[in-house]
UniProtKB/TrEMBL annotation:
Family classification: Belongs to the glucosamine/galactosamine-6-phosphate isomerase family. 6-phosphogluconolactonase subfamily.
Record organism: Stutzerimonas balearica DSM 6083
Listed EC numbers: 3.1.1.31
Top-rank taxon, per record: Bacteria
Gene name tied to this protein: pgl
Segments forming domain Glucosamine/galactosamine-6-phosphate isomerase: 19-234
UniProt name for this protein: 6-phosphogluconolactonase
One GO molecular-function entry: 6-phosphogluconolactonase activity
């Protein structure tokens, strides 16, 4: 099956790239263009990215793009509730691969805090996010083979609340089926209001997941909540 064969909603655009390196470069070009436009139009640009290993080539490519990085804010779509010194930290990943060279001038707004409880950490992250230029200019999401995105996992007790159109919290405590279980995720309203939204996936298994999500309920496959305009999907084998 090719991504062009999917019956995507109106306004959702799909791109098929030859490999991960090419996809990273094309996405970096597009994201840099949007961020540059936001800087020149609004004086500041905001970018929210996802963690995991797959985005590393994209992070490295974007870090090489010429931008007024001092006017760019970077945050995370989600975070594992572990300190940045932990190998599982998304913040550590972004600092290691994106906030390098000229991109080190960007302002990073992290979600993690060493709070007493996950709920308290989510409240602290919400306070941090008051400093983020909103709506977010560029959101880059990934997707798991179970249909989760950010840290919005099927079966999580807080999922229905986090996916509410009117969810009042910008950041919500979530639990994942895999370790580290305790997570923080931006909620649906702050994610779905992003001006430009990308979904990056690799491999035939993820393509099958995306196909299944098109006819699924968002509580079973949370990525379904985000498959609407404006969304650009980038895929490579």
């Amino acid at each position: 099956m090719a991504i062009s064969e999917l019956d995507l909603p109106t306004g959702v655009v799909a791109h098929s790239l030859a490999d991960a390196k090419r996809m990273a470069e094309v996405m970096a070009d597009g994201v840099a263009k949007v961020l540059d436009y936001a800087v020149h139009t609004h004086g500041i640009a905001s970018l929210a990215v996802s963690g995991g290993r797959s985005p590393i080539p994209f992070f490295e490519a974007l870090s090489r793009r010429e931008l007024d990085w001092s006017r760019v804010q970077v945050t995370l779509a989600d975070e594992r509730w572990v300190p940045p010194s932990d190998e599982a930290s998304n913040e550590a990943l972004v600092r290691r691969y994106l906030l390098q060279g000229p991109a080190a001038q960007a302002q990073f707004l992290g979600l993690y805090s060493p709070a007493d409880t996950l709920a308290e950490a989510a409240r602290h992250a919400a306070e941090v996010l008051t400093g983020l230029a909103q709506p977010i200019d560029v959101l880059v999401l990934g997707m798991g083979e179970d249909g989760h995105t950010a840290s919005l996992f099927p079966g999580s007790d807080n999922l229905a609340h986090a996916l509410r159109d009117d969810c009042p919290e910008p950041c919500v405590p979530m639990r994942a089926p895999s370790a580290p279980h305790e997570r923080l995720s931006l909620s649906y309203p702050i994610l779905a209001s992003a001006r430009t939204q990308y979904l990056a996936i690799q491999g035939l298994a993820k393509l099958d997941t995306l196909r299944d999500a098109l006819s699924a309920d968002a509580l079973q496959m949370p990525i379904r909540a985000f498959i609407h305009s404006p969304l650009e999907i980038y895929w490579c084998p």
